[in-house]
Design goal:
Largest interface: A-B, 23 and 22 residues
Number of domains of chain B: 1
Number of domains of chain A: 2
Distance between the termini of chain A: 33 Å
Order of helices and strands of chain B: HHHHHHHHHH
Number of strands of chain A: 10
Strand content of chain A: 15-25%
Strand order of the largest sheet of chain A: 6-7-8-3-9-10
Radius of gyration of chain A: 19 Å
CATH architecture of chain B: Orthogonal Bundle
Radius of gyration of chain B: 22 Å
Helix content of chain A: 25-40%
Shape of chain B: globular
CATH superfamily of the largest domain in chain A: P-loop containing nucleotide triphosphate hydrolases
Order of helices and strands of chain A: EEEHEEEHHHEHEHEEHH
Oligomer: heterodimer
Largest sheet of chain A: 6 strands, mixed
Shape of chain A: globular
Structural class of chain A: alpha/beta
Strand content of chain B: under 5%
CATH architecture of the largest domain in chain A: 3-Layer(aba) Sandwich
Number of strands of chain B: 0
CATH topology of the largest domain in chain A: Rossmann fold
CATH class of chain B: Mainly Alpha
């Protein structure tokens, strides 16, 4: 199957843009005894409204940096970033929700209070909080655990609490920074299904950072493949999956083609990231 | 009460009963120690007569003042030092050696400055407790997960709100340790100061009774101090356990 990929040097795709990166570069300044680190870019990216976009790349290639710049958590060293036409700088824009890889649930609050946190801060009236939180917890399968504390839940459930906390704010752009990184393979697949359901229901644009090729291939409309540091887009792969999809898509023939295409780029880049010792590493593996 | 709680209570009652028996049969001389039942009777009589009320009120007032001031100042100092890593690095050797200093050598100096008022006593309690709270605060803030800072930024929270709604609750278990230490150190600092040189207070009353060979009053007041300190610590311990149960699900 043709994954509909188009080789696109700068990684730039035009369409109804929801968020844009233009020539974005991020250089971490020098710290005691270390040289500055050029982590990202320059990259151009247009996120289409309502699409599911994933970014894959070798470790340390700047995937999370890309997300932080887009979220307004870090300023770009050069270039511009915008969300819904407004520049992003120094603050997470209204309408953007972020779910992090680490467990970010609040251990001192119940599941319900965790989910209601942002709404209470925003001064939303209690009836509306009741409705949105109840809805989000039911959607995430946490209704029976609403009075539990995060410590009483599994890792996957705690991550769902964090997603519910983001979901109740009704973000139009959801940024997921390796949210399933700490979960086992089966739970990841099931969480993938839940994220797809969430995406379809909310109509939000989703940007997922992941190191798992199968996860990116299964969930995404498009997958951006990044080079080793400093991260740039090497390829944008359009999967052309139907909107109504779930984890069973992994058994389709086209799925293998998409993941093979992603790996084709990533293999060499991952070797570079491992210290430009790709040949030696491959030789070692062959002997083993 | 949990099963472990019942076991704990049983062990305590057994030790008290053993002490009672040893004194009653003469294994511990009556001149040295009263049986616990007589200590309790003496305490009830003392409290009913009201002869120790002034000393009790004074000591508890001093402990309260030392406790509140050390918790507030220790917390503030901890937050401030945590914000400035260089200052922290400079101060760390002082923190490490702070409790090696025998504070009570400064008590006469404080009396020379502030006279025989309550202030030197409160200051001794404060000096004893404040650094424990400061260190607990720094440790607590060190352990606030960094991701919570990102979550705060996602919610567009300002620094003060982040401190109050994120860092403070996230550091709470460590702050609780500081609070417990402050209670213990405030009592030690205040009662020991009263014991040495003060003209009133529970410490002074115990020392006076001891010098006067008034074992009944001495043990009654010692029992009172023990009951107050143990009760306070048990309440804090119970509160801390409930907190930890939420945090760690145990």
């Amino acid at each position: 199957m043709d994954a509909g990929a188009s080789r696109n040097g700068g990684g730039r795709v035009a369409a109804g843009h929801h968020a844009e990166l233009r020539g974005v570069t991020r250089v971490y300044p020098a710290v005691a005894g270390y040289r500055p680190v050029h982590a990202l870019g320059p990259v151009d990216l247009d996120l289409r409204r309502g699409e599911f976009f994933s970014v894959v790349g070798p470790s340390g290639c700047g995937k999370s940096t890309l997300l932080k710049v887009l979220a307004g958590l870090q300023p770009p060293s050069a270039g511009k970033c915008s969300f819904e036409g407004k520049p992003v700088h120094g603050q997470v824009p209204e309408g953007v929700g972020v779910v992090f890889q680490e467990d970010a649930s609040f251990p001192w609050l119940t599941v319900w209070d965790n989910a209601a946190f942002g709404l209470r801060r925003a001064g939303v009236d209690s009836a509306e909080i009741e409705r949105r939180v109840g809805d989000a917890l039911a959607f995430m399968g946490l209704k029976d655990f609403q009075r539990a504390y995060p410590a009483q839940l599994s890792g996957g459930m705690r991550q769902r609490v964090c997603i519910a906390r983001t979901l109740v704010l009704q973000p139009r752009l959801i940024l997921l920074d390796e949210p399933f990184g700490a979960l086992d393979a089966q739970t990841r697949l099931l969480m993938g299904d839940e994220v797809l359901r969430l995406w379809r229901r909310t109509g939000a644009t989703i940007l997922l950072i992941t190191h798992a090729l199968d996860e990116a291939a299964m969930l995404s409309d498009r997958v951006g493949v990044m080079s080793a540091r400093p991260g740039r887009f090497l390829d944008l792969v359009e999967t052309k999956w139907p909107k109504e999809r779930d984890s069973t898509i992994v058994s389709e023939a086209g799925f293998g083609e998409v993941t093979a295409r992603l790996w084709h780029h990533l293999r060499g880049e991952s070797m570079k990231a491992l210290g430009q010792s790709g040949a030696a590493a491959a030789g070692g593996r062959a002997e083993a | 009460m949990s099963r472990i709680g019942w076991i704990r209570l049983a062990v305590l009652l057994a030790l008290v009963a053993l002490l009672e028996i040893l004194v009653r049969i003469g294994s511990i001389p009556y001149k040295t120690m009263l049986p616990p039942s007589e200590m309790l009777t003496a305490l009830v009589r003392l409290l009913a007569a009201g002869t120790a009320t002034r000393d009790i009120v004074q000591t508890l007032t001093c402990v309260g003042a030392a406790l509140v001031s050390s918790v507030v100042a220790g917390f503030g100092l901890g937050v401030a030092i945590h914000r400035f890593p260089r200052v922290r690095r400079a101060l760390e050797p002082f923190f490490a050696t702070y409790y090696a200093v025998p504070f009570f050598i400064f008590y006469p100096v404080l009396i020379a400055i502030f006279d025989l008022s309550l202030l030197p006593i409160i200051l001794m309690g404060f000096a004893f407790a404040v650094i424990a709270m400061c260190i607990a605060t720094i440790n607590g803030l060190d352990r606030v997960p960094r991701v919570l800072g990102k979550v705060a930024r996602m919610h567009r929270m300002r620094e003060f709100e982040t401190a109050v709604r994120m860092k403070l609750p996230a550091a709470a278990p460590h702050l609780f340790t500081g609070l417990k230490l402050c209670v213990a150190y405030s009592f030690i600092g205040v009662i020991a100061s009263e014991f040495i040189l003060a003209p009133s207070g529970l410490g002074h009353a115990i020392a006076y009774a001891y010098n006067d060979f008034d074992n009944r009053t001495m043990y009654a007041l010692m029992l009172f101090v023990m009951i107050v300190v143990v009760t306070l610590n048990m309440l804090l311990h119970g509160w801390e356990q409930r907190l930890l149960k939420r945090w760690h699900g145990r």
